[in-house]
Write a structure and sequence with these properties.
2 copies of one chain form a homodimer. By secondary structure, chain A is α/β, with parallel strands linked by helices. The first copy, chain A, contains 12 helices and 14 strands. The interface between A and B is medium-sized, with 25 and 25 residues. Chains A, B: This is LPPG:FO 2-phospho-L-lactate transferase.
């Protein structure tokens, strides 16, 4: 089976670990979000790609969910001793090495997709990890604070401000110029199923969907999404702050509507959210199924992935049904 | 007193620590060798500038003579895990931070002299440290080995090969284009005395002297050199291998002749070398004095520095003597 998954950071990476366990022998291509990327100290940092790579490659800090296990922070301390800013981004020494290699390769002229492939040669994540684009994009967040109304890098809002200042707008700078990285559209075209993991619907999945051609390519495929909202709150992270910024409620129903049809054909919601909402969870033409959606460990993540794949298989088998028909599990 | 000193790495840095102790209140400008500089993993490494900065700033690994004290090597291990070359250059984590800051500033457009000043703002070395040039130069060494006759970076010959393969030629690539960094010629013009510490006469002092205008500027000043050769051997390092490459014997006399007159006006030799050599230690017009030249500690380095300054003061006082006159300590 050929599977394509979009992915952000921690939630996406943990889901992917479950997907690998649920679909042994499958060919999985992961299209990673690079809107969170940031240049720090002259080094190119790709938090989401690295979280996927470290998680699937066995190098992740399990407790934290990002960064390297057994990490040290000598370089960061030294940079602070030089008075170098920013000091709010926690790069560890092991992680620094990744950014040094990446930056050296980028400066030598390799595109980010080739660099990512080279880094993955060490980590052997078991999936093909492709950045959404080789073109530079950056998610910026418009906030108003004592310095007035201004746009800050997503990481500054997310990491330094902990999303404590309301996001008035979330903009992917460079989106209009960015093309999908080589292999992205091909992988989607060849896919038997596309899975949207419970990543942030705005700054992870939503960002990838902004890259020209990706949404359109997905619309002709069987796409199953896993709700990142459980019981009316994000499972982790601050997706609610991002959803509020774009005027979307923090409900499984609202996220499904955000993705919309014809993009999504199947939708896994948490049991807590089954039937919740004014009109219940659902959307014309989308088959909805409820499952336990909390990823406690690889096993529970694998169960969710298996449910998503089963739903995708059913949907593919029933292709040709008139649009708008609800499956047995639909409302 | 305004003092200018040229300097390479370990020997120069230790001498400078003595010079600071010997001449409190003096204004010392150090012109640092950058021919050893190397780009590693996309980062600009300036070994000699850093050795001076760390030594005078209290951050040096005292046993090793280079690199940072209490150093760790996590980044280097990780780079090796990625298979990144070279793996023979021992950058520590603390040291990496320096190279990251330097590289970021260089890429932002600051000249190396401004970057060095910024780094020194943290280390407060007590001297003004200026690179010999803001223009990129690199010492390359021509060797013949199983790969044929080829030029390698000085660091590859020095660190990886431990100078075990004879150097057939030593070339400062870029020397013809390089101009002295801002402040270099001005500091020399304003100096009451110029001291050549016991740094490598070929790849440290000799390199600095190749930068257009520096030798000429020094020739009109009172210059006292400290022999790096004691008892017919380098005090440390592999100066003999460098001297052999350029056809110069490893003797205090031969190094003095290499620097030559009118560049050098005074010459400190080790007691072991007093009168050694076919014609004794000396050169027409150069006042020679013998002293213990082993730097066991800051005190012994300070004693050498004091002797050099005393000699410079005497020479300055006797300015107007006809050239070729030997002082009381001469041959």
């Amino acid at each position: 089976m050929r599977i394509v998954s979009l992915a952000g950071g921690i939630g996406g990476a943990r889901f992917l670990r479950g997907l690998l366990a649920a679909a042994p022998g499958s060919e999985i291509t992961v299209i990673g979000n690079t809107g969170d990327d940031i240049t720090l100290y002259g080094l190119q940092v790709c938090p989401d790609l690295d979280t996927v790579m470290y998680t699937l490659g066995g190098g992740i800090d399990e407790d934290q969910g990002w960064g390297r296990q057994k990490e040290t922070h000598v370089v960061k301390e030294e940079l602070a001793a030089y008075g170098v800013e920013p000091q709010w981004f926690g790069l560890g020494d092991r992680d620094f090495a990744t950014h040094i290699v990446r930056t050296q390769m980028l400066r030598a002229g390799y595109p980010l997709s080739a660099v990512t492939e080279a880094l993955c040669a060490r980590w052997e994540p078991g999936v093909r990890l492709i950045p959404m684009s080789d073109d530079r994009t950056e998610t910026h967040v418009v906030i108003s604070d004592e310095q007035g109304r201004r746009a800050v890098h997503f990481q500054e809002w997310w990491v330094r401000l902990r999303a404590s200042v309301p996001a008035e707008e979330i903009i992917l700078v460079g989106a209009d110029q960015a093309r999908p990285a080589p292999g992205v559209l091909e992988a989607i075209a060849d896919a038997d199923a596309v899975i949207l993991p419970p990543s942030n619907p705005v700054v992870s999945i939503g960002t990838i969907l902004q890259i020209k051609g990706i949404r359109e390519a997905l619309e002709s495929k069987t796409v199953v999404g896993v709700s990142p909202i459980v019981g009316g709150a994000p499972v982790r992270g601050m997706a609610d702050a991002c959803l509020t910024a774009i005027g979307v409620e923090t409900t499984a129903q609202a996220v499904l509507e955000l993705y919309g049809s014809p993009l999504v054909n199947g939708w896994l919601v948490a049991e807590e959210d089954d039937g919740v909402g004014l009109d219940g969870v659902g959307l014309d033409g989308v088959r909805v199924r409820s499952r336990p959606l909390i990823m406690h460990d690889v096993e529970s993540a694998a169960a969710i992935a298996r449910a998503a794949l089963d739903l995708a298989t059913e949907l593919s088998a029933s292709r040709g049904e008139p649009a708008g028909t609800q499956g047995e599990d639909g409302l």
